[in-house]
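Dataset card, provenance and construction

Sequences and ligand SMILES were collected as paired inputs. For each pair, a complete structure of the chain with the small molecule in place was predicted and serialized as structure tokens. The example below shows a pair involving pyridoxal-5'-phosphate. Curators did not alter the output after generation; any descriptive sentences attached to a record were derived from the structure itself.
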Amino acid sequence: MKDVNLLLRNNIKKLVPYASARDEFSGSAHIFLDANENSLGSPITPAFNRYPDPHQVRIKERLTQIKGLPEKNIFLGNGSDECIDLLYRAFCNPGVDNIIIHPPTYGMYEVSAHIHDIEVRRALLTSDFELNLAATEELIDEHTKILWICSPNNPTGNAFDHSSIEIILNNFDGLVVIDEAYINFSRQQSFIRDLTEYPNLVILQTLSKAWGLAGLRLGMAFASEKIVDILNKIKAPYNIGQATQELVLAALGETEKVNSMIRDIVRMRNELAEKISRLSAVMNVYHSEANFLLVKIKNARQIYESLLAEGVVVRDRSSAPGCTDCLRITVGTGEQNDRLLNLLQDLEKTI
Ligand SMILES: *Cc1c(COP(=O)(O)O)cnc(C)c1O
């Protein structure tokens, strides 16, 4: 593993970060005339006339307890998508560096790379959707800065073999980002425990899936203090709004409710997988450790269109490598899952 500083872009190394009014003041005061806010208040209650905490200290304190990680290893972004974008900004020189993805996988790694003019290299997963280490190794050169691993993977639903990921962590000199957006639905251990061992490891998690807070936009990056400091230095000063901070803090007190939802979703996922696999048009329901199923089904496009005509929207992933005739179906409520099953049963008679 190279020193993180050697991976960093030069302009970021030299960057003098923006100092917000909230950064420059410390101590106690009760009259705040330093940030050009509206001192009279907001047109709505509760008031939102003050800038939010740029360091989201209260949320991090709570996450420290939940995740068992010191605050210095936690970065918060406006969704994981902001964390992805910031990693490119910090480490990848446009037009020079490259990154490696493992398709079929989450689309934002590639889109965000293109936005920053970073070359995307693809090491396809094997036919059983595992990492192909030889293919990955072949693509690595001195300009390879980030290796993206999504586990459990979207859209395939499986978690990768733990030891394959460890081999990558032990051998790759750049950053290894493990996206654990679906980890709460999986039996696999999070890589959080490995952070102390690997200074080049970044773990992404999100409140958008298991926590049921996609609308609030809160993504988390767990990494070495050095990497977290860099992300904090380049983020927009007030990247997490006050409303999000307050609501997230309230939600983080509801772990029991969240755990109960996770149990229900996992149970319904397994039931749905079992029932869908009995349909004769279905060729495969891939093993899922997430809150969705990848289903290989005859005439997938036609099924997709017909479901849509009945007001049920799923994702057609047929164009992704290795996913011919595959639909990605999110686990719904019990009622929604029953409706989907009924529609599929009717549809398979017509195709
Ligand atoms: C849904 C998802 C995310 C979440 O992104 P947010 O910006 O946090 O909502 C991240 N990674 C993967 C693989 C996802 O499927």
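Derived descriptions for this record:
The domain at 256-348 is CATH 3.90.1150.10 (Aspartate Aminotransferase, domain 1).
The pocket of pyridoxal-5'-phosphate is lined by residues 79-81, 106, 150, 154, 179, 181, 206, 208-209, 214, 219 (CB under 6 Å).
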